[in-house]
């Protein structure tokens, strides 16, 4: 039996290894547009490779039908993944945060060991080859690149991902192939990405970083709240808390909903506690410029913007700040609101949302319900995970289920 796998990322490689281990008689070709496998694995975790997570549930995923992931997570949980890693000689470093990295702390070691296993199993790698079209004639498939044809495949897996990180040659060719077999898809969007805002003073805050609580509002209704690092940028906001909340924000943007966020820069204090701290500060140094006094609690850039936002004279002294102005400053520090009007795009996104609709795919085998012996795995499906190793784990898990299925005659 001859198998074609389009896309040598985590899902495709896992499917190839699993299938060949279960059925030594398979002939498997794995195609990739890049000159080596696992380009996105190499980029994961800033090169450290946040490879999985020990606590994974449906709640860590977004899509039209997040429950689609349940069978894959059940059959290929973290313990199963850990055992797979041991089988290729990869030792894991499990953090207290539940995030999982290779003990080597290098993504390169993950890719190297996967590559060695492909070689050991005699899985044929056809690299620097972009598959543009798949045709089914009777019971076999033909794959077409720009200048070649690859024939007589019994089964085909599309695991070529989506458009996140186009600098790694990411494309949406998998969707194009799927639609040629009458599959439909939900619009794709960048996920785990910086957000653009309409904030008038964003350029003045560029570079300010703070632990904060970010609250997401969709159509003026509170939707999500996340605490973590935020970073003000020339285009809007970034940082871990923003990347996390971006998944929900950008999904709403893709549906043309009104999206806004509120930032509380002092989430561990009540408004009254913060008010008391700043009141005491101003009374302690009454002759100081208010901007200089505020640098006792915030950065100077932020202190200047606080006065700008609230139309307070920049040269005002601490002693001259009245109660109304002080309340306005406190409100800004604990409820800085602005509208989200865009993202930094696929180039800066860690993942893509949207993709092939999961109700057209069998959740136990990941086989197409519309075309026998055509399979999908990984990011090309309308499933996107939270930051923290969840996207890679779904790629491994979905690849494992496909591998089991395609190994059978």
UniProtKB/TrEMBL annotation:
Asked whether the keyword Flavoprotein is assigned, the reply is yes
All copies of the RsdA/BaiN/AoA(So)-like insert domain together span: 189-350
Which cofactors are reported in the record for this sequence? Answer: FAD
Q: Which Pfam families match?
A: HI0933_like (PF03486), HI0933_like_1st (PF22780)
InterPro entries tied to this protein? BaiN-like (IPR004792), BaiN-like_dom_sf (IPR023166), FAD/NAD-bd_sf (IPR036188), RsdA/BaiN/AoA(So)-like_dom (IPR055178), RsdA/BaiN/AoA(So)_Rossmann (IPR057661)
Domain spans labelled RsdA/BaiN/AoA(So)-like Rossmann fold-like? 2-404
Task: Give the domain of life.
Answer: Bacteria
- Alphabetically list the UniProt keywords: FAD, Flavoprotein
Q: Which PANTHER family match?
A: OS12G0638800 PROTEIN
Protein's recorded name: Aminoacetone oxidase family FAD-binding enzyme
Q: Where does this protein come from, organism-wise? A: Malaciobacter molluscorum LMG 25693
């Amino acid at each position: 039996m001859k198998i074609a796998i389009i896309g040598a990322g985590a899902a495709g490689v896992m499917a190839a290894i699993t299938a060949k281990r279960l059925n030594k008689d398979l002939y498997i070709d794995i195609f990739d547009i890049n000159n080596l496998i696992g380009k996105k694995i190499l980029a994961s975790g800033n090169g450290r490779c946040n490879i999985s997570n020990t606590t994974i549930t449906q709640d860590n995923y977004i899509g039209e039908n997040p429950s689609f992931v349940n069978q894959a997570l059940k059959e290929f949980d973290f313990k199963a993944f850990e055992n797979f890693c041991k089988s290729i000689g990869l030792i894991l470093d499990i953090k207290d945060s539940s995030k999982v990295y290779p003990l080597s702390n290098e993504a390169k070691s993950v890719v190297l060991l996967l590559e060695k296993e492909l070689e050991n199993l005699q899985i044929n790698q056809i690299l620097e080859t972009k598959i543009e079209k798949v045709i089914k004639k009777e019971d076999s498939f033909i794959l077409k690149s720009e200048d070649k044809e690859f024939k007589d495949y019994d089964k085909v897996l599309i695991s070529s991902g989506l458009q996140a990180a186009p600098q790694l040659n990411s494309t949406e060719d998998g969707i194009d192939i799927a639609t040629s077999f009458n599959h439909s898809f939900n619009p794709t969007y960048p996920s785990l990405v910086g957000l653009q805002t309409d904030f008038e003073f964003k350029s003045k805050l560029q570079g300010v970083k703070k632990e904060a609580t970010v609250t997401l509002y969709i159509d003026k209704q509170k939707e999500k709240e996340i605490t973590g690092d935020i970073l003000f940028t020339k285009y809007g906001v970034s940082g871990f808390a923003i990347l996390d909340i971006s998944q929900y924000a950008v999904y709403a943007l893709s549906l043309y909903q009104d999206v806004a966020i509120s930032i509380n820069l002092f989430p561990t204090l009540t408004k009254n506690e913060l008010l008391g701290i700043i009141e005491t500060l101003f009374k302690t140094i009454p002759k100081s410029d208010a901007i200089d006094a505020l640098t006792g609690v915030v950065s100077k850039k932020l202190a200047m913007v606080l006065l700008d936002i609230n139309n307070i004279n920049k040269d005002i002294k601490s002693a001259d700040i009245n109660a109304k102005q002080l309340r306005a400053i406190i409100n800004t520090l604990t409820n800085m609101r602005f509208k989200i009007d865009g993202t930094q795009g696929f180039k800066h996104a860690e993942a893509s949302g949207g993709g092939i609709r999961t109700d057209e795919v069998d959740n136990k085998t990941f086989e197409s319900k519309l075309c026998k012996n055509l399979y999908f795995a990984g990011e090309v499906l309308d499933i996107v995970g939270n930051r923290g190793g969840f996207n890679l784990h779904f790629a491994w898990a979905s690849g494992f289920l496909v591998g089991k299925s395609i190994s059978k005659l």
